[in-house]
Amino acid sequence: QFGNKSISKITIDPENPARMFVTTGRGSGGGSGHVWRSTDTGETWTQAMSTSVVWWGTAYGALNTVSGSRWLYAAGGGTDGNVWRSGDRGQTWTRLTPPISTGSHTRLEIAASPLFPDTVYLLVPRDRKIFKSTNAGGAWTDVTAGFINGTTSNPTYNWSQSTYDAFIAVSSRNGTDDVVYVGLIDVAQSIDGGASWRSIGGPTWVST
């Protein structure tokens, strides 16, 4: 069913490991792909939504301990970019409208907080921006300031490989703060949920 499309990410439901999501696009045949959903550990697959673009990944948010639910996000390229959210484990979806530029986007990357059920981060390489939402994508804040590949007095970053080499991930620190990692040429880290950034990678960063 995936044909000759590349698989960009596999996401497994934390509460039900038989439920899986795969995002596809590009590959030897090029072109668009889909978000696929399986409820039987990958034996069979159905399209999770009809939107056909180059999809880059899905991400589950933290568990809401009151409702027992999780937000599921999907991010892909295409016209004006595609950022979608599901509250029922991928059965139905709502398109979100983060403040990104109009026109075609090759790549969007999304990652959710492991601590806060409504917090999610979006990397927009074309715009050279990182956005954060604390209400499940209803509103977004630009947290790019201070994102560095150089000295703190010269807050620049090497975005030259952004169409094919852009990643974002979130872990936690002491169970109180999100630790956000963004990688292109360099790897940058924020230990306070995007409020400030530092380089932890290279190859050109020199500590000052």
Write a short abstract of this structure:
With 208 residues, this protein is mainly β.
Secondary structure layout plus pairing:
Elements lengths: L5 E7 L7 E6 L9 E4 L7 E2 L7 E6 L11 E5 L1 E2 L2 E5 L7 E2 L8 E2 L3 E4 L7 E5 L4 E5 L7 E2 L24 E7 L3 E7 L3 E4 L7 E2 L9
Antiparallel strand pairs: 1-2, 2-3, 3-4, 5-6, 6-8, 7-10, 8-9, 11-12, 12-13, 13-14, 15-16, 16-17, 17-18
For this entry, give a set of tags.
single chain; 4-stranded antiparallel beta sheet; mainly beta; 208 residues; globular
Helix content: under 10%
* Radius of gyration over C-alpha positions, nearest whole angstrom: 17 Å
**Main sheet properties:** 4 strands, antiparallel
Q: Approximately what portion of the residues adopt beta-strand conformation? A: 35-45%
How many DSSP-defined strands? Answer: 18
Q: Strand sequence of the main sheet, in spatial order?
A: 1-2-3-4
What value does the average pLDDT take?
90
